[in-house]
Design brief:
- A hairpin with a 6-residue loop joins β7 and β8.
- The two termini are about 45 Å apart.
- The protein is α+β, with helices and mostly antiparallel strands.
- The chain folds into 2 domains: about 160 residues, no CATH class; about 60 residues, no CATH class.
- The protein is rod-shaped and about 95 Å long.
- It is built from 8 helices and 8 strands, in the order βββααβαββαααββαα.
Length: about 240
């Protein structure tokens, strides 16, 4: 299982991510931009150092959550070809029997056989009354659709936000998402810090745009944080956009 971790320190601007392979370091200029936005909030909005670190960490989790796609709710499925052929032949035989007045001994069909595949590519066959019933089958429904996105939302929630990147995620994903994220923080004193650890094994593969979105996360988080600060200042000055 891979682990994706971010550490954000107020005293020393060093931000890195780690997975099951080599550690990943974001470009220093992107790290500097995020800390520059954090200091702007401290200067213009009177944030404490701890609040600045918290806001910066929240922006990173929000950026990564926004960039994480939600998988489809249902697996692809179809009728089993061999079963369809057998049923077609049996239907033809039944029609012949009916024409001979022997319909009472015609074969009664089982429910149609459907075929789907698990996430690991293993073929699964199951019976359902029709396609609508098949859509509700435990073999077709993806219970944790949106787990990766929901996990970042919990990272935001654990930092004190009532909102999270939960759009289009299933109830199951929202429940289990919090079990894949750990937030360690100390926002007091001269060296406040936040560490978010995400243990969803496919977290980077779930990113829209793949690894590129991970590599540019810090830059986008800095821009997002500066945008929030500017909007707050506009509101304070009565210049909020209509």
């Amino acid at each position: 299982m891979s682990r994706f971790s971010e550490a954000l320190s107020g005293a020393r601007p060093g931000v890195k991510g780690s997975m099951s392979g080599p550690e990943l370091f974001w470009p220093q200029k992107d790290v500097d931009a995020l800390f520059s936005a954090m200091r702007a909030g401290m200067r213009e909005l009177n944030w404490s150092l701890g609040k600045g670190v918290k806001k910066a960490a929240w922006s990173i989790a929000n950026t990564l959550g926004t960039s994480t796609r939600v998988s489809k709710k249902l697996r692809t499925f179809d009728f089993d070809v061999n079963d369809q052929h057998r049923r077609k032949l049996q239907k033809s035989r039944n029609a012949k029997l009916a024409r001979r007045g022997m319909a009472e001994i015609s074969h009664k069909f089982d429910d149609p056989l459907f075929v789907t595949k698990t996430r690991k590519g293993k073929q699964v066959k199951f019976r359902a009354k029709n396609k609508n019933a098949a859509k509700k089958s435990k073999y077709v429904v993806i219970k944790n659709s949106g787990l990766a996105k929901a996990s970042w939302g919990f990272g935001m929630k654990y930092l004190g936000s009532s909102s999270g990147a939960f759009t289009d995620t299933t109830q199951s994903a929202r429940y289990f998402g919090g079990k894949h994220v750990q937030v360690d923080s100390n926002l007091r004193g001269d060296n406040p810090h936040v560490k978010i650890t995400n243990s969803v094994g496919y977290i980077t593969r779930a990113m829209t745009g793949g690894q590129h979105r991970v590599d540019t996360a810090m830059e986008r988080a800095g821009s997002s944080l500066m945008h929030q600060i500017e909007n707050t200042l506009r509101e304070k000055l009565g210049l909020a956009r209509a």
